[in-house]
Specification:
The chain is mainly alpha-helical and 499 residues long. It contains 15 helices and six strands.
């Protein structure tokens, strides 16, 4: 089952064939690679970026519509189940990212990636058909989201592959490239969902196969089609390459690592994983409650919430893309640890801005019609009905969140999250050194998955019970403590070859 993996042997070390666990080290500046090999290697890396793009599109294309879609097929009013629905995605990724990463250490990375691509096609199809089932529609959505989480576990495999297929000098740029691909997916997804809004909740029906193409399901079926195209391209074009980290053979460090005397800095690795986990926790908080928050604060209807948040998240993804390019530029001129601290500072600023200011005199608009929840038509959710406005218990004592404040906060969160996750991933890869990184990247991805699993549940409960004040104040404090942790362990966050 193990396919051929193309290994590039260093010119100056080819005779001695020095290695660690069978992984050959490259020369600091020169290694043996033909023009065709280089083109093929980068073609595979770019294809990996395409897979990251589709994975991000999987997630972002439904993120603004998942709550109204759930309401349209189950008529629920409870945001707690929304938290569990988003939690399922994180749970699937949490459990299977390390498994897929470990699997990729023993076989060609092609097999784990191929398996998850096929699963993604199935999961998106199931999500689109959730409303066609006679009962338990919410459970069907839950299963689909869990399967999509498993598919997202291939991020660990792809990160490991990109780390192993690039030199230290190439790595920040390569990581920025696949992070940019993720951002483009995050940016285009809400745009597509917004463009599908005119289809409405009724849409088009094909009763023979129980197919409904409306503003919610069409997005899932579109990603299914793109997944099939990606699957074909992957089978035709992908080849596995591996280059180990750059070391100087003439130094004692090379000999020490070659003898296995230098191990991974566990403190640095742990801090990197924890930082990544907390950054993803912050974005999970935002993604979970942005739609319910804006419906409560601005009296938006369900369709308006999908449309306007889609536009805002698209702009936010654009900010993330610019941030990735900025980090790619700054990393050549500035210590990556400083960039990490700067990204976390911006991320804290964004979360803090989502806290309603207590010195204002405005309050969220109340329900336009005072009726019981049992009388509300959750299928229409228009402003002619009962539920345009804030209907939580905390609405009477929580101040208004202003639209300008919300827009600036989304921009800051997008910029801070992009800068933080890109930088900490690169630092983590360099801390790990030349060993196969599949399992370790799986653990990093699992950390993010854990946040996506518990974050929606926690913030779903906190938002319903206590509102946005405690929801965003808590995550801001956690991120502030993260900065303190990084400052304390600053000298441990360096590449293995510099220790």
């Amino acid at each position: 089952m193990k396919s051929e993996v193309h290994r590039l042997i260093p010119v100056t070390k080819a005779k001695e064939n020095k290695s660690i666990n069978g992984d050959v080290f490259e020369d600091r500046d020169v290694f043996e690679e033909s023009v065709e090999d280089k083109k093929s290697r980068w073609r595979s890396i770019h294809l990996a970026c395409l897979i990251m793009f589709i994975g991000s599109l999987d997630y972002s294309i439904v993120i603004t519509s998942i709550w109204p879609y759930l309401q349209s097929i189950t008529y629920t009013k409870d945001t707690t189940f929304l938290g569990w629905l988003l939690c399922a995605f994180g749970l699937g990724q949490l459990v299977f990212a390390p498994i897929l990463g470990l699997w990729s250490n023993y076989v060609d990375v092609k097999w784990p990636i191929l398996t998850t691509l096929i699963l993604g096609v199935f999961a998106n199809t199931l999500y689109g058909y959730a409303g066609a089932f006679p009962s338990h529609n919410g459970i069907v959505m839950l299963v689909a989201r869990f399967c999509l989480g498993i598919r997202a576990g291939n991020v660990a495999v792809i990160k490991s592959y990109v780390s192993g297929a690039t030199t230290v000098k190439e790595r920040t740029s390569a990581v920025a490239n696949f992070s940019t691909a993720q951002t483009i997916g995050l940016m285009i997804g809400p745009v597509i969902q917004t463009a599908l809004t005119p289809l409405g909740e009724t849409g088009l029906r094909w009763d023979l196969i129980k197919l409904t193409l409306n503003m919610y399901t069409t997005a899932a079926f579109l990603v299914t089609l793109l997944g099939i195209v990606t699957l074909v391209l992957f089978l035709l074009m992908f080849k596995s390459y591996r280059i180990a980290d750059t070391l100087d053979e003439d130094t004692e460090d090379y000999q020490s690592i070659d003898d296995g005397k230098i191990e991974i800095d566990k403190v640095g690795a742990f801090v990197s994983v924890l930082t990544f986990l907390l950054a993803v926790l912050a974005i999970a908080y935002n993604e979970t409650i942005l739609v319910p928050l804006t419906m409560a604060m601005f009296a938006w209807s369900r369709n308006e919430a999908v449309l306007y948040n889609g536009i805002l998240l698209t702009g936010g993804a654009g900010v993330s893309g610019l941030s990735y390019l900025g980090v790619k530029y700054l990393s050549k001129r500035c210590d990556e640890r400083r960039i990490l601290l700067g990204g976390l500072t911006v991320l804290i600023t964004g979360c803090a801005l989502l806290i309603p200011m207590p010195w204002t005199s405005s309050y969220p608009p109340a329900l336009r019609v005072a009726v019981n929840f049992t009388d509300i038509d959750f299928n229409t959710m228009d402003c002619e009905g009962a539920r345009c406005g804030c209907y939580f218990d905390w609405c009477t004592h929580t101040h208004q969140l202003f639209l300008s404040q919300y827009i600036i906060a989304v921009a800051c969160v997008s910029c801070g999250y992009a800068s933080t996750t890109l930088t900490v991933t690169t630092i983590y890869s360099k801390i790990l050194g030349p060993k196969p990184q599949g399992l370790f990247m799986g653990l990093l991805t699992a950390g993010g998955s854990f946040s996506r699993m518990v974050g929606p549940v926690i913030v779903g409960f906190m938002f319903a019970e206590y509102g946005p004040v405690w929801s965003f104040l808590s995550i801001s404090i956690v991120l502030l403590l993260t900065i303190v942790m990084i400052i304390v362990t600053y000298r441990r966050l360096v590449p293995m070859c510099q220790r």
